[in-house]
Design brief:
The protein has about 100 residues and is α+β, with helices and mostly antiparallel strands. It has a three-stranded antiparallel sheet with strand order 3-4-5, with helices on one face.
Length: about 100
């Protein structure tokens, strides 16, 4: 009975949003129906990587439960799981060795 209510709630939110998600920087992201379902049932400390259809990149999705003015709010944080490094990192292993 409870799973049926949760699945009905998920179907309703998928119908309303169409698989779109608004992150904490007010950017719109679009995911497939299966990916949106996994994001919808994501637990708070976990994160998941899914492909954004709108941006055609893999993004890392996590969320926090915020309590503002007596209301609960989900704040999604969407980031790049593979950040681009501008310059190569210094090799600290060999520089710390003394010969």
């Amino acid at each position: 009975m409870i799973t049926m209510i949760i699945n009905a709630l998920f179907s309703f939110t998928l119908f309303i949003t169409g698989g779109h998600l608004l992150d904490n920087k007010f950017k719109v992201h679009h995911y497939s129906d299966e990916d949106y379902k996994e994001i919808f049932f994501l637990q708070s400390p976990d994160s998941i990587s899914k492909k954004c259809i709108k941006h055609s990149v893999v993004e890392k999705i996590s969320y926090k439960n915020l309590h503002r003015e007596g209301k609960n709010q989900r704040d999604y944080e969407i980031s790049d799981p593979y950040p681009i490094q501008d310059k190569p990192q210094e090799d600290t292993f060999n520089s710390q060795r003394s010969y």
